[in-house]
Amino acid sequence: MKHNISTPPPCPRASHVIGLCKKFVYDSTFTYPLVIRTGKGCYIEDIDGNIFLDFSSNIGACPLGYSHPEILQVLAEYSKNGAHKIAGQDFYSEEHALLASKVSSITPENFKAFFVNSGAEAVENAIKIAYSRMGPLPGVSCTGAFHGRTLGALTFTFSKPVQKANFPEFAVKRIKFCTADGDPDIESIEPLLKENKAAFILSEVVQGEGGYNFASLQFMKNLSKFSKLYGVPLILDEVQSGMGRTGRWWAFEHYDIKPDIMSAAKALQVGAAIYHRDLEPARQGVLSSTWGGGSRIDMAVGAKTIDIIARDRLLENAAKIGSVLKKSLQDIVGKGGLVDVRGLGLMIGVEFDTKQNRDSKLVSLFKKGLLLLPAGQKAMRMIPPLIINDEEAQEGLEIIDEVLRSSQ
Ligand SMILES: Cc1ncc(COP(=O)(O)O)c(C=O)c1O
Question: Which domains does the chain carry?
Answer without folding.
Answer: 74-278+287-311 (3.40.640.10)
